[in-house]
Write a structure and sequence with these properties.
InterPro entries: HMA_dom, HMA_dom_sf. By secondary structure, the protein is of the alpha+beta class.
Length: 69
């Protein structure tokens, strides 16, 4: 699982945009968005770089990434 620290994600609409972007390329991926901590947790077969690109193309800069066991 990867966890992305995302800047500017402040509402349900923001979360929905990110969820939709990731599910467009990986419909079977697992995505959990935490607005209060501005984090996105993803389990996906897509690469870390591709996931970062998708989130950032949605308009939300990724500040940090960490792998969670």
């Amino acid at each position: 699982m990867l966890e992305f620290q995302v800047e500017g994600m402040t509402c349900g609409s923001c979360a929905s945009v990110i969820l939709k972007a990731i599910h467009t390329v990986d419909p079977y991926g697992s995505v959990a968005v935490q607005i209060s901590t501005q984090t996105v947790q993803v389990v996906s077969k897509r690469s870390e770089q591709e996931l970062i690109r998708l989130i950032e193309e949605s308009g939300y800069p990724v500040l940090a990434t960490k792998k969670i066991a």
